[in-house]
Structure formats: C-alpha cells, structure tokens
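This is your field. Pick holes in the following sequence-structure pair:
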Amino acid sequence: MHEALAKLHVFQTELNDVVTNDDLVTFSTVAPSPSRFHLSLTDHDPTFSMNPHQFLTVMKTIYRKGNVVGITSNQVVKEKGDEKEGSEQGGVEVRYLLTLISRASGAVTTLQNCTLTCVKSADGAWQFTGLVCRTIFDTGVFNFVVTSGARIKFAVDVKKVAHPENPEEFKASHVSSIYLHGDEPEAKERLANSDKLMYARWDWASTNADKLVNALRLCGHADHHIQAMCNGTRPLCFKDESLHQEFLDDLRHLKAELEHEMGWKNVGFVQSGSSVPGFSTNPLKGIAYQASKITDPTKSDVDLVVVGEGVAAWVEEAKAKHLPNHVYPSCGARLPSGKVEQETRVGLKREEDLPKALVAFRAKWASKFGGGMQTTFALSPTPSLPPWESRLL
C-alpha cells in the first residue's frame, strides 16, 4: 500500500502541473477502504478559476493513468444566459457528453457515458458536477469521486428513433416475460454466470439503444419518460418530475434522520431495479443475453439501498442477535481488465427491526409504486456500483 500511495503522490503532482496551480488537486482517503479516494478541486488562489477545458484536461490525465486509452468530449448543451466572459446575465452553463474508451484484446469498448455540467456564475467562478472517475494503477484500483450527479445511461435522442415497421414482430423478438425457477437446468446455468449475463444485457442495451427505446415504447412507456431514463435523470417508476423531486427531497430528510437516529455518518442512497435502466438484470428473467424483460411501473418494485459509515457494524449486530435477514451478493463495477467487483447487501425481513425513520419513509412511498418498495443495506460505505444502478445522494 505504501508503494501505491507513493504513486498517488506523484500522480497528484502531475495533476497540479496540468492545471498550473499548486495544491489545486488534493486527495483524502475514504474509510475504511484505503484504496478509495475522494478527489477535491480546491481553489486556494481567489484570482484563479478552472475553466471547463482545464477540468477536462484533468479528467483525461486521470484516465490515461489507467487502462482507459481515450476520452472524447462533445459539447451538447449551452444555456443559462450570455456566453461572453464576465457576463452579468446570470451565468453560463455548458454540458459535455463524455465517452470513456478502452481497448481490450484489440476491440474498442465504451466503458462509461456520463455528463459533465459546468456552471459559471455571474462572479466568474466555475462549478463542475456529474462526473465519477475511476483509474487503475498497477498496484491496485483507485476511485476518484469528484461529485455526485446524473449519469447518462444511454446516449440516445429518443424522438429521433424510428418506430419499428412491424411492431408485433419486433415485440416478439425483443420483449420477454420469461421467469425461470431456480431448480431448472437453464436457471442454474444462468445463476452460475450471473455477472457475465448482467453485463451482456447492459452491453446489448448500450449498443442497441434504439431497439431498447422501441421495446419500452411497445410496453407503454412515453418518449419523454424514456428520455429521462436514458439521461439518467429520472427512473421509469416515477410518473412525473414533481413526484421524483418529492422523492429526492424526502431522501434528504431521511438522510439527516438516519444519521441522528442511528449515529451513522455520510448516509446516502442507491436506487437499483428495472426502472433505472428500463429492463431487468435479474438473470432468471427475460432472454439470457439481451435486455428484454421491460420494467412495468404497475408491477416492478423500487429497490433502495442505504449506504453509510456505521451501517455495516449495525448489520453485523443484527446478525449476532439472529434477526431474520437475507444476504444479497451484489454485482459491482466492471474494471477495464474485465473483472467485476463484488459487493454485499443485506435486507432485514421484519419491519420492527428497521430504523424508525426508514419505516416511516417506506410507509409513505411503498404505496406510490405499483410493485412496492424493497430496502437493503450496503456493507461498504462507498460501494462499487454497476452502470444500471444510480447513486441518489
């Protein structure tokens, strides 16, 4: 680990050289995992402010240290006032669509799509949101979390996707309601290869976003809801933006309440389930290696994962008391090497064993979703997430 930290120190110096400002880039460890770091962009010189070009240069430098060989950026939106330097029209907002590219076994693979939003206020200061970075050193994995924000699921303009010429024929080959039982031979085979299968579905959806859009359309989802899902801004379980915003506001209150009631720190939430990417990743559902079990807001449940410092100790205490629980091995992020990180989540079966604040939250929101709500607890305070899940807070 000392060798890794030495490399990280050199890397920090390189980044500061890139932005030509001493101590602009700093790192801090995220307990209890010494290989996870928060990257902070701290402007110690009030006369200096990073612009989007400099920030993108920092991101490209981060990725070049790992197995990612390319990063492309396309400016996709300009809005929010005058673009001119020193504008007093309320500032400028510039959005970039970033695509991270890897070459494995000679093939070019898109690892991640995300949006970087750069907001310039009237006083000339820039703020950056919406980017999660990961890089690989030969001594291990380092995660650099710049800030939380919406991450694009599928880079597609839904309104430009042509409808299928033969809807019924298309639906027959792209939408499936298969649900295998665990004792069936095919079910056992799928479960034995679950990580490979889930990422194959994600890869299929990423390269066939137009087909996913039409599958969603044929299952009753409106274009504006599909676009919000593809943009990573609103899962399909929410009927409109106002309900989603109310959900996020209540989560912020729940965060504070859990930290007060349980003594946990840095509480956050992850939303999983089929409404996030539009299809089920459950290996037993749908066509094996194709995204085909389309989410149904009237039946699909909403999965909320609680993360935070102190959660794991509380879960272990609950196990020691023999409180009824279920352990869920969880698929994490896929590294450029192809290896998939593993996480563990635990659900307590009885409501009386849950934090009171969470019980109250569930009582309000479970009835608002057609399939109800399931809550689990992540054992890691900074869990590795697959691209079909979304960090909310």
